[in-house]
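TA notes. Do not distribute before section.
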Amino acid sequence: MGWETRGHRGHYYTRSRRDHGRVVREYVGCGRKGELAAAADASRRAERVAERAAIQAEREQAQAIDAELANLHRTVDLLARGVLLAAGFERHKRQWRKRRDDPIEDDTDRAGQS
């Protein structure tokens, strides 16, 4: 997209667009008409740049939230593991199961029976 000068005909504005996979240059106009088209094209380009920047900012914000959630997940998982281990559970094939022969429980059961 831009202003062109060919021969001695003067200055005129053209646009490039894709038509069935080929780039086609489209004559828009010269003088005031060309200036208006150039300004409109520049405005559309600026809008697209602003939209891309807004999308990128949203993406970065979402990534920051995801990182915080992953950190929270790791913390909660570690805390849950600690609580379950302290309660006498063990992890077997990705499942938490109560230990059958827990020496701590055996001592408390014997103390209560005497």
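Switch to the second chain here.
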Amino acid sequence: MRSERVCALARYVMTSSMSPVITAATQWFERTLDDSANKRITIPESFLAIDSILIILENVVRGLVVYPKMIEKRIQMELPFMMTENLMMEAVKRGGDRQELHEKIRTYSVEAGRVIKLEGGENGLLDMIANDLEFPLNKEQLLSLAEPGNYTGRATEQVSAYLMEVIEPLLQPFEGESFQETELRV
């Protein structure tokens, strides 16, 4: 509910920015009332709306609960689909025919997706592939490729760099200060 409020207020701010743009498109900034009147409304109202957004987000973040086991479960549910390209490349290295492997992986992926979506079952893609005697990878080899960190690219490094280069310098002036939680009134 609070996140929906944030979205609603953000839409308000985005559309408020259109008023001065429309004014600029229809007059030549001759200091007419239609220029200054809408600026007197849209600019402060936008700042008030953004302030409300930040208060709501602070409230949401303070109450945020992370469930690592649920995250892990969700990753494990999706990981077999994310790793199909790597599975195919490894299987080709071991002598498999790329076209045949692609079709097998596609067929098994569709079936695994069907079981998940229609039956609420677990992702059995790796088991299906492991049980295919013509597929050149066994269960142990498949599981060795199932390391989630292999499928995130540079995300870890990018986040770390952003935190150190952008966020930490912004927070530095406030180090040691305590902040009082704002009452949510929106």
